[in-house]
């Protein structure tokens, strides 16, 4: 059943995000793909998960500039 698989994947991903610390932005592509899969299967995607996806994307963009010389 795709719903159960996606729910399990979401739970695992949230655990991975908690453990990732300041590198959590590296998991943004995985979260984004999961949200897309949920939508494609007609599952509701909470505003909280959508905001987390956007926050991680913002962190990823910012991380690209952290190593740029000034």
Notes on the structure:
With 70 residues, the protein is mainly α. The mean pLDDT is 92. The chain starts with a helix and ends with a helix. The protein has one domain (2-66). It has three helices and no strands. Helix 2 (28-40) runs antiparallel to helix 3 (47-66).
Write the layout of secondary structure elements.
Elements: H1 2-20, H2 28-40, H3 47-66
Beta percentage is: under 5%
**Mean pLDDT over the full residue set:** 92
**Head-to-tail CA distance between termini:** 51 Å
- What is the tally of helical segments? 3
**Low-pLDDT residue intervals, each spanning 5 or more residues:** none
Strand element count: 0
Number of domains: 1
Fraction of residues in helix: over 70%
Shape assignment: elongated
| Sheet with the most strands, sense and barrel status | none
| Rg, Å, rounded | 14 Å
**What pattern of helices and strands is seen along the backbone?**
HHH
Which structural class should the secondary elements be placed in? mainly alpha
Please give a quick description of this structure.
With 70 residues, this protein is mostly helical. The protein contains three helices and no strands.
Question: What descriptive keywords fit this protein?
Answer:
mainly alpha; 74% helix
